[in-house]
């Protein structure tokens, strides 16, 4: 059911504890499938009880509050964990003013979740008789004969865009801007997003693997998590590609943690998150210096910002306050966003926008849609991959292109390249 108006339906929700089904992604059917997985825990869903097309994150939060307040819920779980019961998976456009894409909140008809050794199933519908869960789904097949082509800009053209951004930063027009590029991938058969999600979850288990409305990826960056009154945001800015040698990577990590260019980029991002959270939180903790987060393909400078969330501040409200952060847009925000629209020559759609889930209490997790691809809605054999880099005064266009290629590795590997 699709609801474009602002009057949500009354939903009936039933949650029961179930035996552990094993790998959650393996439960998904080929169509109308959703996932949010980290280190084998998380939630998967399928079917569609209701879908809401959202104009903004704030409007989506208002709609969700109304829907959650009217739900008829039944649960057999004692001390139910966050994410059990009514939930919606969501994905939001990076810049609605410069995109033809659509932000959505989707309430699945069935959700299976696992957390801290507990597994549950939630069924959701518009009547009290929500029906049984579907049976066994066919296994996904890998993409065949994958090929790649430039998106909006070639590599040299994108380097020229980076050089222009550096020129504007050096002239004092802005401090930082994040520039993205896209890459098109084609297969001989329909690309099954379950195949991509399973590969990403297996290879990048420290990231949050997501599959929502044709957007699939594994993000290392948590825009905001709200749970039990605590808000957490993981900020990543400053990146270097791994060498494949442990000793060399240790030296690279040391160099990254001392890089003035990367530390400057990271500081802008951390400051923007702390400033955005302040009106909605108290008791904020911002570490004095970042740590190095090691992923299979890259090393990142990372900082985890924590705070006590105000009781009325849902995870969606916090995401609305934080997006877009300097980590994916730049500083000052308005100037950086205008620069992106002028220079990138692409529609980011939902790349670098919030992606995640929210439950009836307002708890939830909203990552930033990075290391991801968007399946073509008209041609299931095609997917559009994205990568972006933070540009500051010390940025070198050739090095930024190499960094963007490193950030494309997770999706290229998932496709079998």
Q: What descriptive keywords fit this protein?
A:
417 residues; alpha+beta; Anthranilate synthase; single chain; globular
Fold and architecture overview:
- The structure is a single chain.
- Helices cover 26% and strands 35% of the residues.
- By secondary structure, the protein is of the alpha+beta class.
- The chain has one domain (2-137, 144-414): 4-Layer Sandwich (Anthranilate synthase), CATH 3.60.120.
- The strands form two sheets. Strands 2, 3, 4, 6, 9, 10, 11, 12, 13, 14, 20, 23 and 24 form a 13-stranded mixed sheet that branches. Strands 1, 5, 7, 8, 15, 16, 17, 18, 19, 21 and 22 form an eleven-stranded mixed sheet that branches.
- A hairpin with a 2-residue loop joins strand 15 (222-227) and strand 16.
- Helix 1 runs antiparallel to helix 6, helix 2 (155-170) packs across helix 8 and helix 3 packs across helix 8 (397-414).
């Amino acid at each position: 059911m699709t609801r474009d108006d602002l009057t949500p339906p009354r939903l009936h929700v039933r949650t029961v504890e179930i035996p552990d089904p094993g790998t959650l992604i393996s439960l998904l059917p080929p169509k109308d499938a959703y996932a949010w997985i980290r280190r084998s825990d998380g939630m998967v869903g399928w079917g569609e009880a209701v879908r809401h097309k959202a104009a903004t994150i704030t409007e989506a939060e208002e709609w969700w509050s109304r829907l959650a307040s009217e739900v008829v819920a039944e649960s057999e779980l004692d001390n139910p964990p966050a994410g059990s019961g009514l939930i919606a998976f969501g994905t939001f456009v990076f810049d609605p003013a410069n995109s033809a894409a659509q932000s959505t909140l989707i309430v699945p008809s069935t959700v299976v979740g696992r957390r801290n050794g507990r597994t549950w199933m939630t069924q959701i519908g518009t009547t009290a008789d929500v029906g049984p869960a579907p049976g066994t789904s066919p296994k996904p097949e890998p993409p065949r004969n994958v090929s790649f082509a430039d998106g909006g800009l070639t590599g040299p053209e994108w380097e020229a865009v980076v050089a222009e951004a550096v020129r504007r930063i050096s002239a004092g027009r802005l401090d930082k801007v994040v520039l993205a590029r896209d890459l098109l991938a084609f297969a001989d058969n329909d690309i099954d997003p379950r195949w991509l999600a399973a590969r990403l979850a297996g290879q990048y288990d420290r990231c949050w693997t997501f599959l929502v409305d044709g957007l699939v990826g594994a993000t290392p960056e948590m825009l905001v998590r709200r749970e039990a009154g605590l808000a957490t945001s993981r900020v990543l800015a400053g990146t270097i590609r791994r060498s494949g040698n442990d000793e060399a990577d240790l030296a690279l990590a040391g160099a990254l943690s001392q890089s003035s260019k990367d530390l400057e980029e990271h500081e802008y991002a951390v400051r923007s998150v702390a400033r955005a959270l302040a009106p909605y939180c108290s008791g904020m903790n911002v570490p004095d210096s970042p740590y190095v987060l090691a992923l299979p393909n890259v090393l990142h400078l990372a900082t985890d910002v924590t705070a006590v969330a105000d009781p009325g501040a849902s995870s969606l409200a916090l995401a609305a306050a934080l997006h877009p952060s300097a980590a994916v847009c730049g500083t000052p925000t308005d100037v950086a966003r205008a620069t992106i629209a002028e220079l990138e020559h692409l529609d980011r759609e939902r790349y670098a926008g919030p992606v995640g889930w929210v439950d009836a209490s307002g708890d939830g997790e909203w990552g930033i849609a990075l290391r991801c691809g968007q399946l073509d809605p008209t041609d299931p054999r095609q997917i559009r991959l994205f990568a972006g880099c933070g540009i500051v005064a010390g940025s070198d266009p050739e090095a930024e292109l190499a960094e963007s290629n490193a950030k494309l590795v997770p999706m290229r590997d998932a496709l079998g390249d």
